[in-house]
Amino acid sequence: MTVNLLDYDLEGLADFCERHGEKRFRATQLFRWIHQKGATDFDQMSDLARSLREKLKVAARIEGLQVISQHESNDGTVKWLFAVGAGNAVEAVFIPEEDRGTLCISSQAGCAVGCRFCSTGHQGFSRNLTSGEITAQLWFAEHFLRKHLARDERIISNVVMMGMGEPLQNYGALIPALRTILDDHAYGLSRRRVTVSTSGVVPMIDRLGQDCPVALAVSLHAPTDELRTNLVPLNRKYPIAELLGACNRYLVHAPRDFITFEYCMLDGVNDQLEQARELVALVQRYRQGQGIWCKFNLIPFNPFPESGLLCSPPEQIAAFGKILSDAGIVTTVRKTRGDDIDAACGQLAGDVRDRTGVSRRIARQRVVMLQPDKASAVTVKEI
Ligand code: SAH
Ligand code: SF4
């Protein structure tokens, strides 16, 4: 069985070269071909010795994900659905803005945390993605978009792990993928522009700070343990005090001097003005020195029937946000993007919510295998 080179960060690729009797520095050339040029064919790699190329053909492959569908929204947002075997699918979403291009990627098929307001959570846990499957979402999107938009420069400047799954419950695969995303010989994104979003796996927040500090977003969603446990069951294991303690420790290593708290606005559940005041009191207890160490991002809830929940009215979101900002906490309300293609937050599971359903649907469909360097030759549409 050949190994998929997308699974390796540069260090892993150097180990691979060494195991095959090659100098470690060869890995850099190989890494650049894969990630900077989007190559899939070893014969393309003209500056590698023929003997190495022959070895690679026997021992390795560069294999992306199967693209099930691609939707492009009126606002330029693009959503891909990738098959990851056994009827499972994950999604990635590209969100273009004036000064940046953000890719939202998935870390697991399904999720074991089971938050009440999240359709991925309702779907249950299927499996962890491999490092290669996490990296492949960026590898594919970056090279596909370069072809699609006929631009020879970097398109994706920011990556957020806010798709399906809890990244800190797939730590072993997450770290090599993050290292590749950050590596100057691959995508070279700045640590400040790569965000891991977590529902609060406290020990892994500490490890991330040690191993690979990037920007951190924490899904808070409630000012009290009672309510948070009801919304995010993981809170029973890692209650708010422990979570905020971990956030404080993370700031010592973090590339930014604040943590972003995500707060999904649920009508009549966590959106009362009294709850905003409780949040202010809560974070002020944990504030380090004078500096502001957190920001709030209020996310309008994207409803789905099984949740039995509704989104807070816009006036309520505004009034809630005003209490936070009046207390000196930078607060933003997330714009909803890609609404017309179900690419907004928490809708990522969309059609695949019913796993039995999706197995049948995928089986019936023709699945297009897309390699980014060949993307322009393939017409991609929903199939
Ligand atoms: N598991 C991680 C990252 C993926 S979820 C986490 O929970 O942080 C990314 C963000 O989308 C989280 O803040 C989550 O709370 C939010 N989200 C999930 N479902 C949502 C929905 N239906 N509407 C709005 N936001 C949602
Ligand atoms: Fe998992 Fe995040 Fe969804 Fe909660 S919000 S179920 S942690 S993906």
Low-pLDDT residue intervals, each spanning 5 or more residues: 346-383
What shape does the CA trace take? elongated
The level 1 CATH classification of the largest domain is Alpha Beta
Strand arrangement within the widest β-sheet reads 14-13-12-11-10-9-6-5-4-3-15
**CATH topology of the largest domain, anyone?**
TIM Barrel
Quaternary structure of the protein? single chain
Helix content: 25-40%
Distance between the termini: 30 Å
CATH H-level superfamily of the largest domain: Aldolase class I
Calculate the mean pLDDT score and round it: 89
Q: Overview of this structure, please?
A:
The chain is α/β, with parallel strands linked by helices and 383 residues long. The chain has two domains: 3-61, Orthogonal Bundle (DNA polymerase, domain 1), CATH 1.10.150; 66-341, Alpha-Beta Barrel (TIM Barrel), CATH 3.20.20. Helix content is 34%, strand content 19%. The chain has helices at residues 10-19, 26-36, 50-59, 119-123, 131-148, 171-182, 202-211, 225-231, 240-250, 273-285, 314-326, 355-364; strands spanning 3-4, 60-61, 66-72, 78-83, 89-97, 100-104, 108-110, 125-128, 158-161, 194-198, 215-219, 259-265, 294-300, 331-333, 368-369. The strands form three sheets. The protein has an eleven-stranded mixed β-sheet, with helices on one face. A hairpin with a 5-residue loop joins strand 4 (78-83) and strand 5. Helix 1 crosses helix 2 and helix 10 runs parallel beside helix 11. The longest helix is centred in the middle third of the chain and has 18 residues, at 131-148. 46% of the residues are buried. It binds S-adenosyl-L-homocysteine and iron/sulfur cluster. Residues 117-118, 162, 166, 197-199, 219, 262, 264, 299, 301-302, 345-346 line the site of S-adenosyl-L-homocysteine.
